[in-house]
Please model this.
Amino acid sequence: QVQLVESGGGLVQAGGSLRLSCTASGRIGSTNGMGWYRQVPGNQRELVAAFTSGGNTNYADSVKGRFTISRDSAKKTVHLQMNSLKPEDTAVYYCNFQVIRYSDGYRYEIWGQGTQVTVSS
Model:
């Protein structure tokens, strides 16, 4: 099973920055979608930023102008640059890839293990 490994989380003061990275453990198929979600206790997982299959980007209103999603040319790694962090950004962040398998075109979805981001006030 392909695995996504996340890194870059940590503790930062309000106004600071963090850069999250998510990389597939091995070669995967064609990635037609990739993004970042976050979840806090008692709440559902919510979309933060994503690439659509067409390469368009989508951001949650709460992070527009502060966060930037990017990826490598091979679509194996996705990053989330988080600037001007606020305490409200505190959550576990999960990356998500939507993949089309090379061998047979099977479509599947994989998630990272989650990385904690804590922003102190």
